[in-house]
Amino acid sequence: MEILVGSLRSKSGPIVHAFTHALSTVIIFLREKLAQNSPRNDVRLSQVWIQYEKYENVLTALAALTDRGQDNPPHNYLALDHTSVNLLSLLYDHLHSHIERRAPQLVTAILAFTLTNTSREYFQQLSHLVGFSGDSTPRRSSRVVGEHNDQYAIDVSDDGIEERDEFDSIEDSFPTFFPPKLVDILPGAQKSLVLLRAAEPDHPLLRARSVRRVIEWFWSWDRIEAAWNGRGVAPVVQERIISPPTSRDSEPGLAQFRIFDLEPGSHFGHSILDHNHAPTPSSVLQDFSDMFPHSLPPITPTLEHLTSLVFEPLLQHASTLSRTLLSLFLSPDAPLQFKPHMELLHSYPLLASPAFKSRLAAALFSDSQGYDPDEPVPTSLRSLRRKAPIKQASMQRWPVGLSWALLERETWPPVGAYLSFFLRTVIVDSFDVNGEQLEDSSRRGTFWVEAERRLGFAIRDLPTGPGHDQWLNPLSIEALDFLYMDYKPPHPLDILITPEILSKYQRMFTHLLRIMRVEHALSSVFRMCRSTSRPLFPTLVAANKRLLHFRFIAHSFVSILSSYVFDTAIGGNVNLFLAQLDQDQEDQTPVFPDVFALAKAHAALMDDVLAACLLRTAQRGAGDLLRQALELVLEFAVLVGDVKTGRLQEYEAALMLEDLAGRFRGRMGAFTRNLKAIVDKGPLPAVPVTAALTSGPRMTGGIQAVSHLSESLSEWWTTI
Q1: Interior/surface letters 489-516, b for 16+ CB within 10 angstroms, e for the rest
Q2: Residue 152 pLDDT > 50, yes or no?
Q3: How many CA atoms lie within 13 A of 362 on its CB side?
């Protein structure tokens, strides 16, 4: 055991140093006991055996702990795992085993002493990470949350030279004896402390406390009862290295050498202890062994119950810390409110605001029956500058559904200052309308001013290789995929609105733009076909009937899809999620335990919305069929535009229309059968946490919502 202690002294880390010191104290204690109880010549061997048996049991338990039993040869010794988590788990498991076996009191006391002293530094560091130790200021080597970096990432010290503390990664794993609730909440509490410092540095939870709170093991009945009754437990005075008495006439510089004035070995015993001396390590162990109970009290009959009681203050503090940070994002009176930002994302990237949707449609789309120079185009720079209109003949084909303002330069995509001007005007005008509809308060006004600066349109750099350049063609369904809405949430709200979540909003925005493009293209077809005196196919009656039938079924499909996406997939999930945010503040049992659960719920919400719209990777088959069906409807509108402008002859367009109608029937048949197969698989085995409120209506969900679309698209589509 002494050889093991010597080898452990070369290891680094406060936990292994504490274990080495505790193990060394036990060895010193055993040597003193063996020296004090040396047998006399007239004592029988049986008496000697009984006298030393309890100390042999201690050494046997320590040998089993360190895998250095008497029957185990040295070449079979296993290296002791000196990592913090594994070492503490090993100590706890051995103590638990001896308590369950009703081992002698001295053995369990020695193991409890070793566990208590070894885990003290670990508990202090852990308490500091969640602000429980009374000092919530971050240490120099602790990790810092950056505004533009990952919020969970941890940086090195400011100068980059100081080594990282081994407790920086303590959140990755915990000793096996930690209660499951504490394991679940501690990582979030640590991150909540960092975010709370950034959100409200003067919060009362961050102020230094006059009484330093600690988490440590306690074993006596009176301390256990005090903790059970909520009176708190006073920390045990830690052992200190003994120093000899100093006389008043001694020189201050020689005081540190007074230990050499003592007789050899005298500083190990109790005989020299008085009110001027600190206790020796062995005396502290003796006192610990004397007060250690023979059994645990009835209120904590097992070591698991005692462990839960020891960690109860830390668990309550972590829960309070997480709920405090969450209230800063959900409380109506808090400076940082998550719900207005959620409403902003719902209104703009998901197009739930009628004012923004109508202005965006006016800027990007058109449902005109043909180019008319006298038609007002309010978003066009040409109308603002009163320039002459461009000639339609210069365009090769008419991109039906797109605004003529986007086609002025006859290039695609229409990037440039004029596009930025159009879209910036759309956002500013819709902000003015939304600001008038809200309550007249300075906080609301400040939010919309801040939101105007953080929300805007951006251009995406898409690939241009073969098969990936459809966005360069204004006739394609992907013509507007280069455009997306960019939102930069303020810190620390970026923990709830992460870049991954924003990318899901951008995918939905692209999908909605495609649907709006097809809707306006069909509106243009209705306008082009409304004249009964001048039909598009004046001589081919069958072709004209096919045109009207195709227009009807295409309009029915797009109308059903648009209503489903906006009302069921988006509204059925997001509206109830917003109601969930209000319910979290009203109910006694919160829906979200901390901000990280809320962030996961937000991500799961967008996953449900994407799944309901068949945009998840696992739904690639159904999603491709849906995209192809929309693309065929847009191709139909472009074909009608070619007939309207005279680019195609009547007989040419009739053959192309017949082929297009056949392909659309095939795509719709495959799509409806695919939807039915998805519905027949049944709902998910478990309802996600975000899929239901604690009371009231439930969210439509992701895969579960597909049944609504399948019911709307009846079996009639497979037989048209």
Answers
A1: bebbbbbbbbeebbebbbbbbbbbbbbb
A2: no
A3: 18
Q: How many angstroms separate the CA atoms of 74 and 698, rounded?
A: 65
Residues with Cβ within 8 Å of 165's Cβ and at least 6 positions away in sequence, in order, are: 125, 139, 141, 142
Shortest CA distance to 554 belongs to which of 629, 452, 620? 629
Q: What is the CATH number that goes with domain 331-718?
A: 1.20.120.1900
pLDDT-based confidence at residue 237 (cuts at 50, 70, 90):
very low
Find residue 419's DSSP bridge partners.
Answer: none
* pLDDT tens digits, 292-328: 888 888 888 999 999 999 999 888 888 888 888 888 8
Tokens of 388: 């002459």
Q: What are 258-284's pLDDT values in tens digits?
A: 556 554 544 444 444 444 455 777 788
pTM above 0.85, yes or no: no
Q: Are 547 and 637 contacting, i.e. CB atoms less than 8 angstroms apart?
A: no
Kindly report the number of other CB atoms within 10 A of residue 268's CB atom.
18
| Burial class of 585 by CB neighbour count within 10 A (0 to 12, 13 to 18, 19+) | middle
CA distances 63 to 28, 84, 289, 337, 378, Å, are: 16, 20, 19, 58, 88
Helices (H), ranges, 613-645: 620-645
**Average of pLDDT values for 683-687?**
46
3-state secondary structure of 103: coil
Segments making up each domain of the chain, as ranges: 331-718
Report how far residue 545's alpha carbon sits from residue 390's, in angstroms, rounded to the nearest whole number: 34
* Amino acid found at 577: F
Quick one: tokens of 561? 């899809």
In one-letter notation, the amino acid at residue 453 is R
pLDDT-derived band at 153 (thresholds 50, 70, 90) equals: very low
Q: What DSSP assignment string belongs to 75-102?
A: GGPPPP--SHHHHHHHHHHHHHHHHHTT
Which helix (H) or strand (E) is 456 found in, with range? strand 455-459
Q: Contacts by 10-13 with C-beta closer than 8 Å and gap 24+?
A: 11/82, 13/82, 13/84, 13/166
Say if CB 499 and CB 479 are below 8 A apart: no
Question: 114: closest CA among 27, 2, 243?
Answer: 27
Tens-digit pLDDT profile for residues 596-644: 888 999 999 999 999 999 999 888 899 999 999 999 999 999 999 888 8
Helix (DSSP H) and strand (DSSP E) numbers for the chain: 21, 2
